[in-house]
Amino acid sequence: MAHGYAGVAMREIAERLDVSKAALYHHFHDKEALLLEVLMTGVQRAGTMVAEATASPGDTRARVHALLSAMARDRHQQFDAMKLAEREAANLSEAARATMLRAYRTEFLGPIEHVLRQGQEAGEVRPDLEPAWLTRVLLTLAQPLLSVDAAALERTAAATTALFFEGAGAHPQGTNARTETGVPDPS
Q: What does pTM read for this prediction?
């Protein structure tokens, strides 16, 4: 099974799971359906983590910190699911890939964008940047959390939260003035 989707047959999967090939086909009409289910399970698990973290009490910064802390605690699962999706999603048909991406946007990205949009409305996050873009920036900053040592989880999540908000937090008029592009004004 180390050969990925293209290098494994349903027979091998059935043997590894200690079920008959017929039983496997009873639940999944083909190998793509099985792969999609595995990838969707990863998306749903990540979505549950995001929903729980973003529903936590507090302001936007506290909720983002809760999200980053949850990602750090669940880092091994998140890392494995992300790598599997990156490596194997290309083997899905366009329709199956669209299904997975729609779920990813709805269950994972959507709640994060919602929290950041609420932060904008509350004056806690810069209103001049799109929540979708801020979400991508936040997730890019969060990448190192997927491989952090257990002893550094909370410290790294707190540092990542601080780094995100120092660049994305609302700035009072005249303090650290910014241009229309969001880049600090050098004057």
A: 0.77
31-168 fold: Tetracycline Repressor; domain 2 (1.10.357)
Distance CA 16, CA 12 (A): 6
Residues pairing with 184 in the sheet: 178
Q: Where are the domains of the chain?
A: 31-168
153-182 pLDDT tens trace: 899 999 999 999 986 556 666 555 444 444
Tokens of 167: 């660049």
